[in-house]
Write a structure and sequence with these properties.
Blueprint (H helix, E strand, L loop, with lengths): L2 H13 L2 H9 L20 E6 L7 E4 L5 E4 L3 E4 L5 H13 L8 E7 L3 E5 L5 E3 L7 H7 L11 E5 L7 E4 L11 E4 L5
Parallel strand pairs: 6-10
Antiparallel strand pairs: 1-2, 1-5, 3-4, 6-7, 8-9, 8-10
Length: about 190
Amino acid sequence: MKAWFFALILSALAIGTPAAWAAEARAPEPVVAPDVVPEYQLGAGDKVRIIVYGEPTLTGEYSISSSGTISFPLIGDVPSSGLTVKAIQSDIEKKLSNGFMRKPQVSAEVLTYRPFYILGEVNRPGQYPYTSGLTVLKAVATAQGFTYRANTKRVYIKRGDNAAEQPYSLTSTTPVAPGDILRISERFF
C-alpha cells in the first residue's frame, strides 16, 4: 500500500473517530466546582448520634431508614432525609417540648456518612466510605489511580439532589459529598 494511505490511517487514529468528536462536541464545558460542598443533607443510610442532655435513655445512635426517617423514643418517626443536622436537632427539640420535656437541649452529629461511588477510568471502580474533606483526587487515589485512558482534566459528578451528572474541572480542590457518583471519562486523542 502507499505511504499516504498509512499516513491517513495513522492521523485518523490519532485524532479519534467521528463518534468521539460528536460526543466531545455535545459535552458541556466543565464548571469549576466550588471549594466548599453545601451544608450536608442527611439521607437514607446515614447514622447519627443524638444526645438529649440530662436524658441518657433518649441519647443514642440512630440510623436513617430507607423511608428517610429516624425512629425516636416518645415522639416516633422523625422525617430526616434531605434535612441538615441542625434542622433535625431543632425538630426533635420542638417535638420533645410538646408535652414530654421542659426546654430540652438536643445535640446531633453524623457518625457514618453515605458512601460515594466512583466509576469509569479508574483502576478499582466501586463504592467507598466517605471521609470529611474528600476531594476528587483523593477519591481517585482511593480507587487506586487513573487508568492510562483517563481524562484527567474533567470529572462528571451526580450529586444527590441533581437528576443528571454535571461536568466539573478536575482540580485538587474539587470537593466530593457523601452519596456522590463520580465518573472519570475516557480521554480522546
